[in-house]
Amino acid sequence: MSAALADPLVALVGNPNCGKTALFNLLTGSRQKIANYAGVTVERKEGRLRTRAGGQIRVLDLPGAYSLRPRTPDEQITCDFVLGRLPDEPRPDVVVAVVDGTNLRRHLRLVLALKRLGQPVVVALNMVDLARRRGLPIDAAALGRELGLPVVETIGIRAGGAQALLEHLEREHAAPEPGSASRPLSASRAVSLDEAASIAADMASVAADQQEVERILGRLGLDGVPADTPSDRIDRVVLHPLAGPLILGVTMFLMFQAVFAWAQPFMQAITALIAALAALVGAALPAGLLQSLLVDGVLAGAGSVLVFLPQIVLLFAFILVLEDSGYLPRAAFLLDRLMGSVGLSGRSFIPLLSSFACAVPGILAARTIPNARDRIVTILIAPLMTCSARLPVYTLLIGTFVPARTVGPGVGLQGLVLFALYAAGVGGAFAVAWLLKRLRGANALHPLQMELPTYHVPSLRNLGIGLVQRVEVFVRRVGTIILALMVLLWFLSSFPVAPAGYPGPAIEYSLAGRLGSLLAVVFAPIGFNWQISIALVPGMAAREVVVGALGTVYSLSATGRDVAGQVAPLIARAWSLSTALALLAWYVFAPQCLSTLVAARRETNSWRYPALMAAYQFALAYAAAGLTYHLSRWWLGPA
Amino acid sequence: MSAWLERLIVAAAVFASAAYAFKALAPFGWRVSLARRLAGRLPDRMLIWLAGQSACDACGPRPTAGPRRSTR
After folding, report:
1. Contact A418/A394 with Cβ under 8 angstroms?
2. Which of A326, A362, A383, A497 gives the lowest tally of CB atoms within 10 Å of its CB?
3. Looking at the structure, do residues A180 and A285 belong to the same domain, yes or no?
4. Would you call A290 and B9 a contact, using CB atoms and an 8 Å cutoff?
């Protein structure tokens, strides 16, 4: 056994949204995503805790589980791990049962179930600050006596909030048990695997656990009805049948307005910087291959994608604030009736919302849906949510073709169009879900049961970490895969070199030009020229690559030397408004990137669903773009 | 800058980009298959980079040997 596997193993287990990942980040220094709603963690995460004595402890963050009888795939991961059912994983040496101090009635049931397994359990009494602010007389020592387990207080969202837990684990790690010098955190007291399985399946124990929890709460004076909290008062407005949907709609609308309006100065600054760089390179290098690679390939390609960084940051800032505040589960509650009408449950809301960032985590988040049919439908429609990679495409086209004027007090037309495109994606997803419901037959009603967390003022630290991570992801993509694809596209667009006296731009003679001409046969009926057709191909790797690909293709197509990184004026001259609208419609439903297909294959364990996903989205995108192109030509004229 | 040096730099950039794009986008099985074909002709480190460390983990506890066919 390797030294790494010989290190003691500590597993963080608890109900969803009790703060396991926040504690995990504090213990290990990791920066895993945390948010104020259930179901954020759907996979096990591993980190290392270095003790002051120099030892190491492996720490596992597991998806939330309400009991040891799993109902969803993410709960299954936790239960299998705790019960030792995973072939290559040892059972944990210590289970840290994380409980939410503001809701002990529900959280202690899992603690009692874990205790019966016979493994060492330490209870991390989390959110004690919040519980005390609500006037709950929580006494960790008394709770420990009643449970017969060590209890330590923690505050997962505060630096140093896991100090007591850290010290407890270090003490356990440092004090060897008799006969177990090498692994003091030993699971030697644990029951056998068969016994553990029968304990987990014992239904009679559930009622006994509930009685025991009531007894403990009664002894500690925590069995009273909680007073009306600020969250309850906010919910009376936010969840109101009329005011609630209105607030949700206005919030989303303002978000897209702000994304468009506030980002402009920063985008102009980046555009100017890239143009200056291109001018610098153009002046420093003689005209030739290398200059063309740097100006037309790197700066016109990757640079034109980087311009959209401010909008990505703003969009995620809004989403992170909504996540951290606890508002998102309320939105799921508000949309449950609407989602039920198309055959989805409110539980699909969080995976679909995650897909606004990227469809891959959205598809993974579908593990929190207990019903298999609902899960498959959610996975199939997740790519229709507008992921952040589509934002650069939308912004480029809207900024170029939609006039920047207001259509009402504080309402910009460009922001309104962006909002409409996002709404079209959601509408398309609901329509597909409804169709799947009709085709696959009615499904039994699955009432939504979702925990509504307490509202928090968003933590600046979490917001900062989340934004830095998103910036890192975006810049890394631009600097790696997008840059690599742009260099390849430049190569394909530059070779073979056109012979002297070739009429027209040299790119038409290149491999990319010829491939584009072939593809244009397919795409010409929906208004796409060969330059757009060729840009769609690398767009399968990552959607924002289309912007860079257009930058490279048009930069090489240009007869004069246009400034690199400014693709907008080039397409403004080359496209009709109908073509631009058709491309926008295409990208509302566009076939997803390869990563999404691979994620769908992994989550459904079949190529059938990814194939269905790719086929229906291509058909939908083609039909929508064609319809938009011909209707707009009929309405606006061919110009 | 001489013309041959310019061509060399451009060729290196294109080759590196193609290798990176293949590594980033090609399915795991394709990468392992290519790494096996190139075994012995490229340094182990490059093969591991191409196929990923998990290819070695799946085949046995000799990551420095590069990806190879499992004997199990």
Report:
1. yes
2. A497
3. no
4. yes
Residue A187 near residue A119, CB atoms below 8 Å: yes
Residues A161 and A250 in one domain: no
pLDDT digits 0-9 by tens, A428-479: 999 999 998 888 765 556 666 677 888 888 888 878 888 898 888 889 888 8
Dihedral over alpha carbons A626, A627, A630, A634 (to 10 degrees):
-170
Query: What CA–CA distance (Å, rounded) separates A184 from A591?
Result: 53
Residue A434 and residue A540 share a domain: yes
Residues A215 and A249 occupy one common structural domain = no
Out of A161, A186, A220, a domain closes at A220
The enclosing domain of A34 has a CATH number of 3.40.50.300
Domain holding A607, by residue range, is 245-442+458-636
Q: Which of A2, A485, A489 to mutate to test binding with chain B, by most B CBs within 10 Å of its CB?
A: A485
Q: What is the DSSP letter of A453?
A: P
Beta carbons of B10 and B29 less than 8 angstroms apart: no
Domain assignment present for A227 = no
Q: Are residues A209 and A333 in the same domain?
A: no
Question: Which residues of chain A fall short of a pLDDT of 50?
Answer: 1-3, 176-188, 560-564
- d(CA B2, nearest CA chain A) in Å: 11
Torsion angles phi and psi, residue A270, rounded to 5: -70, -40
- Residue A409: how many CB atoms within 10 A of its CB? 5
- Burial environment of residue A349 by CB neighbours within 10 A (0 to 12, 13 to 18, 19 or more): buried
pLDDT, tens digit, 9 for 90 and up, residues A514-540? 998 899 999 999 999 988 998 888 877
Domain boundaries, chain B: 3-65
A376 touches chain B (CB under 8 A): no
3-state secondary structure of A566: coil
Are A290 and B18 within 8 A, CB to CB?
no
Domain co-membership, A545 together with A607: yes
**CA-based nearest distance A609→chain B, Å:** 18
User: Cα(A170)–Cα(A452) distance, rounded to whole angstroms?
Assistant: 35
A414 in any annotated domain: yes
Exposed, middle or buried by CB within 10 Å (0-12, 13-18, 19+), for A254? middle
pTM for this entry: 0.74
